[in-house]
Amino acid sequence: MVPGHSIWKGTNPDLRLNEDQWVLEPYQRGGNRLSALIKHIEIGSKMAAQDKKALLIFSGGHTRSRSTTTEAESYLRLAQLSNAFGVPASSNPFPRATTEDYALDSFQNLLFSIARFHEYAGRYPEKITVVGYEMKRARFIELHRKAIRWPETKFEYIGVDPEGEEKTAAAEGEKQNGYLPYTTDTYGCHSTLLAKRRQRNHFLRFHSYYTSAPELAPLLSWCPSLHTAGSGLYTGELPWDSLHH
């Protein structure tokens, strides 16, 4: 799974490092974030091409009012047009890659991608590899993975951060705006984190996973009252409980 962080609006993959080809937030401009995003796409695509049992899911919704496409769709389009899979897009789009078009934050990137896997493959995954920012490794492994009770032995994280001076500032921003809020609001369904989701859902989209992954319905709806340090974890039955054994 590759979580999206922006939307590529271009048509020429040779211009993919040009910021004007992307819908970027102000803090994403002028540094090396763009090259890191592209590396996430390239690494995920290469891994999927090499592992014939893998399904690559780009995850990210309609998060920008200036674009009617999703983060995920734009990532997959760039991957295909830039031949990241080693398969020319004109003759044969890569078959083991798809999009998850509803996630509005990193927790939803993880949970919704599992639901999308089921929607696409008819079963749940046995192992998850996330390719994203290195600075988000702790959030994914210590908080999001734990929130859905996914076994640590079946979870891998590959991290690539922006290079240069902004790396330190970006890591601090992740800690204050991402990691710490999730330590008290594990499922992102209260106040600050919920407001972020609403602000990003410009087109008022709603996912299909209650229907296509019904076993996850209780988890998708789970919203404990605000607790600290991970109490209030979902305790119901999950399709991947057997992977722990």
Architecture overview:
The protein has 245 residues and is of the alpha/beta class. It has one domain (2-244). It is built from eight helices and seven strands; from the N terminus they run βββαβαβαβαβαααα. It has helices at 33-50, 71-81, 106-121, 137-147, 166-184, 191-200, 209-212, 217-220, and strands at residues 2-3, 7-8, 22-23, 56-59, 97-100, 128-132, 155-159. A three-stranded parallel beta sheet has the order 1-4-5. Helix 4 packs parallel to helix 5. The longest helix is centred in the C-terminal third of the chain and has 19 residues, at 166-184. It is globular.
Rg: 17 Å
Estimate the global geometry from the Cα principal axes.
globular
Low-pLDDT sequence parts: none
**What's the count of strands?**
7
Helix content: 25-40%
Structural class: alpha/beta
Number of helices: 8
Give the mean pLDDT. 93
Strand content: 5-15%
Order of strands side by side in the largest beta sheet?
1-4-5
Return the string of H and E elements.
Answer: EEEHEHEHEHEHHHH
**Count of spatially separate domains:** 1
Taking the alpha carbons of the first and last residues, their distance comes to 24 Å
- Biggest β-sheet description: 3 strands, parallel
Topology:
Blueprint: E1 2-3, E2 7-8, E3 22-23, H1 33-50, E4 56-59, H2 71-81, E5 97-100, H3 106-121, E6 128-132, H4 137-147, E7 155-159, H5 166-184, H6 191-200, H7 209-212, H8 217-220
Parallel strand pairs: 1-4, 4-5, 6-7
Antiparallel strand pairs: 2-3
Helix pairs in contact: 4-5
